[in-house]
Amino acid sequence: MGATQRSRRWLVPVAAVAVVAGVGTLGPVVADASPKLPGISAQELLAKVQTAKVDGLSGTVQSSADLGLPALPGVAGGSDSPSGAVTELLSGKHTARVAFAAPDKARVSVLDTMAERVWTMDGKSAWAYDSAEREAVKLNLPAHQPGKPAAGTPKSYDPQSVAKQFLDAIDPSTKVDVSGTEKVAGRDAYKLRLIPRADQTTVGSVTLAVDSKTWVPLQVTVLPRTGKDPAVQVGFSQVSFDVPAASTFAFTPPKGVKVTEPKTPTTRPDRPAKPIDPKAVPGKPNLKAGNEPTVIGEGWSAVVLVRGAELTGANGPLDQLLAGAQQVQGSWGKGKIVTSKMVNVLLTDDGRVFAGLVTPQTLQDAAAKAPR
Amino acid sequence: MSPSSAVAEPVAPAARPGRYPLALFRSELQLVFGRARTWVLLAVLAGVPLLIGIAIKLSGSEGGGEGFIGQVAGNGLFLIVASLGLSLPFFLPTAVTVIAGESLAGESSLGTLRNLLTAPAGRSRLLAAKMVALIVFCLAATLTIWLSGLIVGFALFPVGDVLLLSGTTIPLGEGLLRALGIAVVIALSLLGLAGIGLFVSSLTSTPLAAMAATFGTFIVLGILTAIPQIDVIHPWLLMFRWTSFADLLRDPPYWGAIGKNLLLQAGYLTVFYAAAWARITSRDIV
Amino acid sequence: MTQTQQQPAAGSPLVTRGLTKRFRGGQVAVDSVDLEVPAGSVFGFLGPNGSGKTTTIRMLLGLIAPTAGEVQLLGEPMPKAQLRVLPRVGALVEGPAFYPFWSGQANLLRFDAADSTADPRTRKARAGEALERVGLSNAAGKKVRAYSLGMRQRLAIAVALMQRRELLVLDEPTNGLDPQGTREVRHLIQDLAGDGTTIFTSTHLLAEVEQVCTHAAVMSRGKLIRQSSVAELRAELRPRLVVRTPDLGIAAETLKSLGVTDLKTTDETVEGDAVELPIEKFAAALVAADVRIHGFGLERPSLEETFVALTGEGFDVAQ
After folding, report:
1. B58 falls within a domain
2. What are A162-187's pLDDT values in tens digits?
3. Across the interface, do B111 and C114 touch by the CB < 8 Å criterion?
4. Rounded average pLDDT over C251-279
5. Using a CB-CB distance cutoff of 8 angstroms, which residues of chain A are in contact with residue C67?
6. Which of A57, A88, B114, C211 reaches 20 to 30 Å from B269, CA-CA?
7. Is residue B156 part of a domain?
8. Is A348 exposed, middle or buried (0-12, 13-18, 19+ CB in 10 A)?
9. Domain assignment of residue A25, yes or no
10. Which residue of A has its CA nearest to B267?
């Protein structure tokens, strides 16, 4: 056995690396290959989507968000604080199980690492359960409001509602086309693409993957104007359109779990994730109660204004963030701009906060127009 | 050139190769489990539930605290899960590193590799026997914790129906079965590391160096997993989905992450086993 | 170098052709060695430490791959056919190697289990016989850690004796043994040879070759410099005339005048090549010259002296 013959054996592990890497990277691509579907116009597809109705569904949803927000060590991990929960859902990857049978029969379980958070409604009562704390919160649903989902259902895990939000925003400011087909959760889907016409926004496009049989949006992908990686992607990795059993939505508080039952159903701002909405961007600084946000502009270039934000104090990570922010000034005054891949925020020295999925210049223009 | 054509039949009838190919595998298990060192490792692992159990018992907390640890006082079965989970980041990898590092480098340093190869064991078969013994050890390690956790948990704490992460409750028997499933999943989670250890062990004749290098690799992978800036490569890192074992405690069990974890382990194992094979079959044994 | 090389005897159990090993540093440990071991022989593989004997043996057994050349064991190519061939070959390579934490018997069982042709049902019995044969029955259950070097050496031979072998390749089998043990091993080798097993044994001790071997080969600095039967080697040696006397000067002059060449004088002896015989002539001449003769005779040089002459270096010398 010669030396060359022996060194040829090393081709085996090299081939193994190639195969493993190939399966790991190309496997999902091959599985997601574009299926062949009859052609459809954007208008037809939109109509189908808006009239889509299913009796029930269940499945697994994967969400990943990379808004390019700077990592805030003190905030990102803490899901107890309101801002922490939002930041958490707007960054990183999450897996959730969803089930839906009626507007008041729904269940969402966020699969955290070695823990789980559950929201469920069985038509009579709503439960929120956190396995890490082993605490449950019970809300009695008002009987006369069957059609309205109770507060506490995180819409961000339901692609259908996320898609609707975007569809509502469609107006002449947006170019809509069918950009092809793809496989989502093993189902053939059309890709409905929304492209903002305005160049003030940082949103490059929003793509809905629409199921070719039920016309339910299966996946939402938001691409920034620059770069190829999605800023937000929420979609089913597995879905079934069978109506889930009623027991799916039931929740029996187990022994050893602390149950709290607020007298009046109040909205819990911390638990539900806010819908991903181009018009409303969660403000990162702590907001003082009573300062209702106002919206300047419309469509993609809308800017949210919040007054009286507290920017000083023992807010360590935020101070660090601001220290590195760009100083700007204009007719509106002076302030700092915090920029990221999609969300930009202008903090003026007189305590106003302008935020939006818009370019920094658009923020300054909005600030100039805004009332003091 | 070759005189073989003229060779008369040898005196003894030519032996038929491969009649008892499994004897080496059995012998390999005897080698791994016939050593005091292995039993010390298993005893340390068996001590994990004992230590945790006693600590919780002494602190006297009644079901407070987060996670599986916080549930031990209320249900002894969670001692199994908590012990398995707490052994995963350090104790189990250490044990696997010791056994894997020893496997080929140990034979090499004792010189017994020569005896085995002239026996002849066959290099590929010897490697396979080493790997099988490693897999059995991984299972033995996690099942030891399972058993010890079962005994200590039942001895020190009340036991009963098991509360799953999803907020539903299952009977004790099914809970024990799920805990057993977790033990098996964690054992399989260690196979990638075992493969790395086997390969490193094939490179050297010094078991300690093999163990140190394997453990060093493990530490580096752990550090890489903890750096958020390189999250692009995280799904490729050995320990990225190690915590997926807890998905067995959901209702119903969530197999997605467990499946990905096992695929990743299989990928690591394939690559490093192939590398170990290339090394051992081409190496000069001195 | 030898005549046998050109026409290999049919069925030679061990043949090499141009066997060469060059290590990574470029050092040539074995340089184009052509060995041919006759069936049934006890073949002494002789050479000083570091002459390439162990490297050659490793290549014979497929432990290391030759840089060039080929090996045939029992008529089959190595290492290609090693799984077929090696069960019929007993081997002891470079000192005894065992699991110190196991008993001698357990060690035997493990190495036997590694051979997929070995019947597990007779394993224990065969181990017992092998231990008996090397005289370790009493220490069978003792941990190898507690064995002396000599006991380990014998256990290593027991490994080779676990099955009936057609060829035994033994690397320094008497290394580390006391004189009694050495004698026992030599007897064992002769016993085995009597059963028809071909034995290829390396050694750096000439006495061993002279006592037990029928054939011998000599390695020096990686090259095979001589290979033939021991009898043949002996026959080639020319006797020397040795005179033991206090009158060294006169003796030397007398012998020189009688045509003795290559004269050497030591403290007590004068010796030289006595080309012309009979030797009585020399005795008479020495007596006539008033040389006091304490001893007188013809001495055949030992193999050792021959090999020193061949290799240009002494044995038992590490390079």
Report:
1. yes
2. 556 656 666 667 888 888 898 888 89
3. no
4. 77
5. 3
6. B114
7. yes
8. buried
9. no
10. A20
Q: A208 and A146 share a domain? A: yes
Tens of pLDDT, residues A26-53 = 766 666 678 888 888 777 787 787 777 7
* Closest chain C residue to the Cα of A6, Cα to Cα: C65
Domain-embedded: residue A13: no
Closest C-chain CA to B16: C117
| Position C149 confidence tier, pLDDT thresholds 50, 70, 90 | confident
Which residues, in sequence order, are bridge partners of residue A173? Answer: none
d(CA C30, CA A184): 65
Residue A323, Cβ neighbours under 10 Å: how many? 8
**CATH number of residue A109's parent domain:** 2.50.20.10
The complex scores an ipTM of 0.86
What is the extent of the structural domain holding A183? 50-260
* Contact residues, C window 67-96, toward A, CB-based 8 Å cutoff: 67, 79-80
Question: Residue A286 has which token pair?
Answer: 């702590």
**A90 and A132, same domain (yes or no):** yes
Chain A residue with CA closest to C68: the answer is A2
Put simply, whether C113 touches B (Cβ < 8 Å) is yes
Report the alpha-carbon distance of residue A89 to residue A282 in Å, rounded: 11
Instruction: State the count of interchain CB pairs (< 8 A) between A and C.
Output: 7
Kindly give the residue spans of alpha helices, DSSP state H, lying in chain C.
53-60, 82-85, 104-113, 123-133, 149-160, 179-194, 206-212, 230-236, 248-257, 280-288, 303-311
Domain borders along chain C are 3-235, 238-299
pLDDT of residue A22: 86
Residue B2 lies inside a defined structural domain of this protein: no
Shared domain check, A234 and A120: yes
Q: Which of B228, B242, B18, B272 shows the shortest CA–CA distance to B121? A: B18
The reply to whether residue A3 touches residue C67, judged by beta carbons under 8 angstroms, is yes
A1 and C79 in contact by Cβ < 8 A? yes
Q: Render pLDDT for B114-153 as a digit per residue (tens, 0 to 9).
A: 999 998 898 999 999 999 999 999 999 999 999 999 999 9
Same domain, A96 and A168: yes
CATH node for C3-235:
3.40.50.300
Domain count of the fold of chain B: 1
| CA C242 from centroid of its chain's CA atoms | 29
**pLDDT tens for the 286 residues of chain B, in order:** 333 333 333 444 444 556 888 999 999 999 999 889 999 999 999 999 999 999 988 887 665 566 788 888 888 999 999 999 999 999 999 999 999 999 999 999 999 999 999 988 989 999 999 999 999 999 999 999 999 999 999 999 999 889 898 888 899 999 999 999 999 999 999 999 999 999 999 999 999 999 999 999 999 999 998 888 887 888 899 999 999 999 999 988 999 899 999 999 999 999 999 999 999 998 888 7
Q: Determine whether the interchain pair C116/B19 forms a contact, defined as Cβ–Cβ distance below 8 Å.
A: yes
Number of CB atoms found within 10 A of residue C91's CB: 26
The single-letter code of the amino acid at A280 is A
Across the interface, whether the CB atoms of A131 and B281 are under 8 A apart is answered no
Instruction: For residue A6, list chain C residues with Cβ-Cβ distance below 8 A.
Output: 65
**CATH 3.50.50.60 is right for the domain spanning C238-299:** no
List residues of chain B with CB under 8 Å from any CB of chain C.
Answer: 1-4, 6-8, 10-12, 14-21, 23-24, 26-27, 30-31, 34-36, 110-112, 114-122, 125-126, 282, 284-286
Do the chains contact at B267 and A24, CB–CB below 8 Å? yes
Q: How far is CA C14 from the centre of its chain?
A: 15
Neighbouring chains of A at 3+ CB pairs within 8 Å? B, C
Task: Assess whether A210 and A333 both reside in one domain.
Answer: no
| Cβ separation A6–C67 shorter than 8 A | no
Structural domain that includes position B54? 23-282
CA distance A285 to chain B (A): 23
